[in-house]
Amino acid sequence: MSLPEYSDYDGLGLAELVRKKQVTPAELVEAAIERIERHNPTLNAVVFKGYDDARRQAAADLPDGPFRGVPFLIKDLGINVARWPRTSGSRFTREMIDDQDCGLTRRYRAAGVVPVGKTNTPEYGITGTTESARLGPCRNPWDPNHISGGSSGGSASAVAAGIVPLAHASDGLGSIRIPAACCGLVGLKVTRDRNPNMPDGFDYALGNVVDHVVTRTVRDCAAMLDATGWPEPGSPYPAPPKDRPYMEEITKSPGRLRIAWSSETPAGRPIDPEIQAALERTAELLAGLGHEVFERGLGIDYRALYASRGPAAAANFASGIDRFIERLGREPQDDELEPLTWATLRAGRRQTGADVMRSLQDTRMLNRKTLAAFEDIDVYLCPVMGEPPPEVGFIDPVNLEPREVNRRQARVFPYTPPFNYSGQPSMSLPLHMSASGLPIGMMFTAKYADEATLFRLAAQLEKEAPWKARRPRVWG
Predict the structure, then answer these.
(1) Does residue 199 register a pLDDT over 80?
(2) What percent of the chain stands above pLDDT 90?
(3) Which of 75, 118, 242, 447 is catalytic?
(4) Catalytic (active site) residue 426
(5) Residues contacting residue 472 through CB under 8 Å, at least 6 positions apart
(6) CA-wise closest residue to 461 among 291, 270, 238
(7) For 293-297, what is the mean pLDDT?
(8) pLDDT of residue 233
(9) 75 part of the active site
(10) Is 170 a catalytic residue?
(11) Handedness of CA 149, 307, 429, 124 (dihedral sign)
């Protein structure tokens, strides 16, 4: 292998070269480091460089997992890496260091990957854009003037630029699917508890947040979920088991699926014409592949659903900040949290126990309507975003008033939250490009715990409408 070709391989491809002894894990780590150093001044995707640890691990006897020797990045939010900082994108927790790996990090290491650093995230993962006072804006490799999405924007930017073939990401209201759509990647929000919270963690988002990866290929997404997506013995709510490995699913035909599609938005506002046209082309493509495709919305009250979750989400956020306060032994100073973060924290501290329980009950009842919409369909298709990725600064949590931030987010990101609430698997695929050269992601959502259908359909679409050969402006 010629190391200049490093970025042309997906994760499984690099691991195969390691197995064939055509390249060493140490050489792959150096290739990733060289690309971080070259592209990070433009992208600001990697915010902590763990080069010494990566070099030591690459020189050691790595586990014989599916990604043995493959460089990997971990989002600076949520999961722990021993001796590495976990700032969560905030000045308040900027000096926090974790003393050991969490369970999911251990599973990543068992899969054979070599973590080389941590990626950019907005403060506590609140926004759909990766811009913060602590870490600065992360930029899109397709056009650095535009956002890479959030809250896993650093991971998506790095993978899209060929720095690593896959990276950790997490999704609480769209934070895997939105960056995948912005950066032209595969992004799967897995079923609730498919990747368990682990015995050394706590359910910090009441099942809303799940962890997985962003990738350039469907098979990398499938292989990593095979490696990490099994329950712990103590998991209180494990996801229903899969029938077979997902790597087998991607070799199978999806059959003739019933697929409903819609561009309906919570506010009833029309979406960008380019997004609408891409959605309609996707429906035509699916029909041409033999699926039963028809236009029909979910028939849910989006506004009621989003409002129902507010009190519980705010109180949960306040509880999470309280855990950081306990660990650090002090309250945040005025200049240590951004305006939107302060507004969310204060709202959370105003909630009563009765408010939170009513919120959870109302959301649970409304989730039934979302799940019922899938009783007679296999897949629901809609866009990931209401318009192409906006410019950096359009959704600015540092300088804009919180209400305006949320107003702009609602316009750009109207589609993803219902499936965090319901726990269903939902996947962004990079099927289209805008006239200005920015990716457009389409979102496919399946029945609860049915990642298998999504993987079979995604593999079919990857073959029929391939995206692997596309290259962003900042690449390799």
Answers:
(1) no
(2) 95
(3) 75
(4) no
(5) 140, 141, 142, 160, 161, 183, 184
(6) 291
(7) 98
(8) 82
(9) yes
(10) no
(11) positive
pLDDT tens for each residue of 311-347 = 999 999 999 999 999 999 999 999 999 999 999 999 9
Q: Is residue 200's pLDDT more than 80?
A: no
Contact 261, 292 (CB under 8 A): no
**Which H or E element spans position 270?**
none
**Which pLDDT band, with edges at 50, 70 and 90, does 1 fall under?**
low
At residue 326, φ and ψ (nearest 5 deg) are -60, -40
Pairwise CA distance, residues 194 & 233, whole Å: 13
Burial 26-43 (b: 16+ CB within 10 A, else e): ebbbbbbbebbeebbeeb
Torsion of CA 225, 275, 433, 290, to 10 degrees: 60
CB neighbour list of residue 357: distance below 8 Å, 6 or more residues apart? none
Catalytic site residue from 90, 148, 151, 308: 151
Q: Check: CATH 3.90.1150.10 for 3-464?
A: no
Q: pLDDT tens-digit profile of 260-293?
A: 999 999 999 999 999 999 999 999 999 999 999 9
Q: What angle do CA 463, 467, 471 make, to 5 degrees?
A: 155
Which of 132, 148, 175, 308 does the annotation list as catalytic?
175
The CA R_g of the chain, rounded to the nearest whole Å, is: 21
Which candidate, 204, 191, 271, 265, places its Cα nearest to that of 231? 191
Rounded CA-CA distance 274/285 in Å is 16
Beta bridge partners of 213: 168
